[in-house]
Design the sequence.
């Protein structure tokens, strides 16, 4: 009897679809701190979110990552994760006040004014107050860039992380290098200043001229500040609050006393405050204005430390950004008040206590102590307080310089941009260990080395720090504009604070960098050293040292990022370059590699044509990142393709793949030896994978998964997005429960979205929120797939992410009933002739008479074998698609094998003839038997 809708494949599972609406609430789940074996978790009773959480934990266990954040988890635990707020630092340790204190202290207001005010006055005269105020503008603009970027990604790597997300790992690495260079150079300077003022405070003025003793004192101060940073961020913040209190209190006392003396005592060189001091048009020349701002802009540097400790701050996405803005504004008030009062009291003359006196240019405030406070009564005590103020300023700044430097390196290590040992945390203090101590030692080594070589080289190195500062500040501004480029037109606020202001700040920093490097610092008359460069000639040592330090970073960057580039090339070469376009489905895909050096990993997708016009769909995710993960992905993808060609059901395919991974792990363990130190057993252990098969004849879709992989289905008849309730299965290689196949019917035009967890977790850590966003992006399911893919990626991955993200989107099709013909025959020899007859008649109806002879031979051989070797009914099905497919199904479970028949064999030649006539042929098993299928090319 002919039945065009019948099909020999029988589904294993009930056809009714099941699942929950994407984005719907799920019950709260507990964090399972230790999972010894997947079988120890109640998979069947768990919520989907719980399954995903535990699946991720098992994968981390397989990769050797510590799951517990408890102090005793490890003697020297690594960062738990590279994500913002997930590295294991002590979260919530700092509030807004502590963050502002750290931001202010990092700039060393007292020391910065003492060392810079004389230089500013020498260049612009009475306009020094307005110059210090104008220098505030570019810093405020960059502070807004920090604020907006931190709100999006509160990572302690700051410029490194943000520039990586915006421009890629190489640019991001250079941003981190700029911070490291600036901080190490400044640490050496601040430590030496602390040593000098420590001797002055104690009355040992003669030791301030000794290179040996100032260096020894500087090393001691670096050691003390490093130790404070090592034993806890809270202690560091407490020290900063007290040091800053002393510093600001003495500064205010100095400013108020100076102004009172100006208007009541009429000091010898005093001048009354004038409005002209605040008019930049009175600056002698544009060159003097630029040089003055260049000198003044660096007295604001350091406030970004408040953002660098973001992962240890309460409300990490808001508080650090607010602290940065508040710090810059408070610095403006302090600098404007102190500059105006000092200028009013001492004038701008070049003799005596005048601010233009070059002999006092290195420290104008200490020289004014006796003049402002007097030499009688409490005057000498207050003069000593000025020295103490500069000392505490240098010490506080030295300590807060260690904080951003250590956390930048810590974040770079967590992202595998530098060796992972720098990502180690103290098990009790939860502070970076290797990065803090190593950078303290690097600062000591830099101070000793350059002091031993030449004081002039050390001086020029300190001068050159401005190039590193403008470099990474400007890079942050440009990163902000580029990172948020897609949302700048969303609102006026977005355009102003994420685009215009950071962009102007970045352009200003770029101008200052170029002006300083190629005009001011390059002048042979500037600085303490001159270097004769080939093809260039005499060049100021400040430019050579500053640009040389950044160029050294370029060399190191090329070395440390080469693996990322190689892994990305390997990953892309192993992924399908062009997806096939089978009849069963229409498809589109997106692969978004992670942005960090460690990010390129083992996420993959594939579309595999199967017999009977069916199609196999697969997405998978390998643990880890880099070359090993990409190579493992290639191995697994090849394994899936080979197993899929065997026409295995999804659960059987995953079981075979699980066996393959487990066997490989045992072989590697045997090579390394039991208990031997070495790499983990197999990079494929703990891999997640979802495999689906769709049949366009029956509309049946079957899925099975290993790990926490999920799918989203949008039915064409309802337009509702649901997450199929797939039976859980352990990640590959871990053993435990068997895999199960879940089947359901899909009407024509339905959407099926397969993806890795990097897609739904890039925008949010909440799984259901991510699924809801994906469902919202697919709500207009009838739109072109390419457009839907773009919309989903733009919604879920608005910028580069910490993890690879894969999306495979397919729209189902159904074969027309006129393309399929099926018959059921009894297992009798007479049915062979009937099978030939109905086949020939159907080919004639399709206009394929040219294939009648070959198809008759094929049908005759296959039906004859079914009658001879199997019992029960026989099904014959013809499918006209891109090829002509002939299928014969019976109840037997033995597969025929192609062989060369001997000359005296009476059988064994029929299948050989079939193979010669066919384009390809094979066997697939069903719960009731098997199907032999043969494909022929259409004429």
Sequence:
């Amino acid at each position: 009897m002919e039945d065009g809708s019948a099909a020999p494949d029988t589904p294993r599972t009930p056809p009714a679809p099941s699942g929950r609406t994407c984005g719907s609430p799920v019950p709260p789940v507990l964090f399972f701190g230790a999972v010894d074996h997947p079988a120890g978790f109640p998979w069947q009773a768990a919520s989907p979110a719980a399954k995903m959480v535990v699946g991720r934990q098992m994968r981390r266990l397989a990769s050797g990552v510590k799951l517990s954040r408890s102090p005793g988890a490890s003697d020297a635990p690594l960062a738990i994760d590279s994500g913002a707020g997930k590295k294991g630092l002590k979260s919530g340790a700092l509030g807004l006040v502590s963050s502002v204190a750290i931001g202010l202290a990092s700039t060393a207001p007292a020391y910065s004014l003492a060392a810079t005010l004389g230089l500013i006055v020498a260049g612009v005269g009475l306009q020094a107050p307005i110059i210090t105020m104008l220098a505030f503008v570019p810093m405020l603009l960059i502070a807004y860039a920090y604020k907006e970027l931190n709100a999006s990604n509160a990572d302690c790597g700051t410029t490194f992380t943000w520039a990586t997300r915006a421009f890629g790992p190489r640019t991001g690495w250079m941003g981190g290098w700029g911070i490291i260079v600036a901080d190490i150079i400044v640490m050496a300077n601040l430590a030496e200043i602390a040593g000098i003022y420590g001797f002055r405070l104690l009355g040992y003025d003669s030791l301030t001229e000794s290179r040996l003793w100032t260096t020894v004192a500087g090393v001691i101060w670096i050691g003390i500040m490093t130790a404070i940073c090592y034993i806890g961020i809270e202690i560091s913040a407490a020290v900063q609050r007290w040091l800053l209190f002393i510093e600001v209190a003495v500064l205010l006392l100095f400013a108020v006393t100076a102004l009172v003396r100006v208007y009541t005592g009429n000091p010898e060189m005093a001048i009354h405050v004038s409005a002209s001091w605040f008019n930049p048009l009175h600056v002698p020349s544009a060159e003097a204005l630029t040089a003055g701002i260049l000198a003044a802009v660096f007295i604001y540097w350091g406030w970004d430390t408040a953002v660098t400790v973001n992962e240890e701050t309460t409300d990490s996405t808001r508080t650090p950004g607010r602290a940065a803005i508040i710090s810059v504004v408070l610095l403006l008030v302090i600098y404007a008040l102190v500059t105006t009062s000092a200028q009013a009291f001492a004038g701008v003359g070049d003799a005596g206590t005048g601010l233009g006196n070059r002999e006092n240019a290195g420290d104008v405030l200490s020289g004014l102590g006796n003049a402002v406070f007097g030499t009688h009564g409490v005057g000498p005590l207050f003069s000593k307080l000025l020295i103490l103020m500069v000392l505490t300023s240098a010490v506080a700044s030295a300590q807060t310089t260690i904080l951003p430097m250590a956390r930048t390196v810590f974040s770079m290590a967590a992202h595998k941009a530098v060796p992972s040992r720098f990502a180690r945390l103290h098990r009790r203090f939860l502070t970076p260990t290797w990065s803090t101590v190593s950078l303290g030692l690097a600062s000591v080594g830099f101070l000793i080395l350059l002091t031993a070589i030449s004081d002039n080289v050390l001086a020029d190195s300190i001068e050159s720090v401005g190039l590193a500062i403008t470099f990474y500040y400007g890079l942050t501004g440009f990163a902000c504009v580029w990172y948020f480029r897609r949302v700048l037109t969303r609102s006026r606020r977005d355009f102003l604070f994420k685009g215009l202001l950071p962009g102007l700040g970045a352009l200003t920093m770029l101008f200052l960098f170029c002006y300083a490097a190629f005009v001011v610092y390059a002048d042979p008359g500037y600085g303490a050293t001159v270097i004769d460069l080939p093809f260039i000639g005499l060049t100021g040592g400040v430019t050579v040292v500053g640009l040389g330090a950044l160029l050294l970073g370029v060399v190191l960057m090329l070395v440390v990022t080469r693996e990322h580039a190689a892994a990305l090339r390997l990953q892309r070469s192993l992924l399908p370059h062009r997806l096939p376009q089978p009849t069963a489905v229409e498809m589109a895909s997106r692969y978004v590699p992670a942005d960090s050096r460690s990010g390129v990993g083992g996420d993959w997708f594939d579309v595999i044509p199967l017999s009977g016009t069916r199609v196999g769909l697969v997405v998978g995710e390998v643990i880890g990142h880099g070359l090993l993960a990409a190579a493992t992905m290639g191995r697994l993808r090849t394994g899936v393709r080979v197993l899929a060609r065997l026409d295995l059901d999804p659960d059987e395919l995953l079981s075979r793949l699980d066996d393959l991974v487990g066997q490989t792990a045992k072989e590697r363990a045997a090579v390394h030896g039991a208990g031997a130190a070495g790499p983990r057993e197999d990079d494929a252990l703990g891999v997640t994978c979802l495999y689906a098969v769709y049949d366009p004849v029956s509309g049946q879709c079957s899925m099975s998964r290993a790990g926490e992989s999920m799918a989203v289905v949008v039915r064409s008849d309802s337009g509702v997005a649901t997450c199929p309730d797939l039976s859980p299965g352990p990640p590959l290689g871990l053993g435990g429960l068997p895999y199960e196949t879940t089947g359901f019917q899909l009407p024509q035009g339905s959407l099926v979205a397969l993806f890795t967890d990097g897609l739904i977790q890039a925008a949010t850590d909440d799984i259901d929120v991510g699924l809801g966003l994906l469902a919202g992006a697919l709500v207009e399911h009838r739109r072109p797939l390419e457009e839907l893919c773009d919309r989903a990626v733009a919604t879920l991955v608005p910028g580069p992410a910490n993890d690879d993200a894969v999306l495979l989107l397919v729209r189902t099709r159904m074969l027309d009933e006129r393309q399929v013909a099926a018959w059921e025959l009894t297992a009798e020899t007479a049915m062979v002739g009937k099978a030939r007859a109905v086949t020939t008649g159907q080919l004639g109806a399709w206009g394929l008479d040219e294939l009648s002879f070959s198809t008759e031979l094929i049908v005759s051989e296959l039906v004859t074998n079914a009658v001879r070797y199997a019992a029960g009914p026989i099904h014959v099905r013809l499918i006209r698609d891109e090829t002509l497919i002939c299928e014969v199904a019976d109840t037997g479970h033995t597969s025929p094998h192609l062989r060369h028949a001997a000359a005296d064999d009476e059988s064994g030649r029929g299948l050989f003839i079939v193979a010669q006539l066919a384009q390809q042929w094979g066997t697939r098993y069903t719960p009731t038997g098997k199907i032999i299928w043969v494909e022929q090319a259409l004429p």
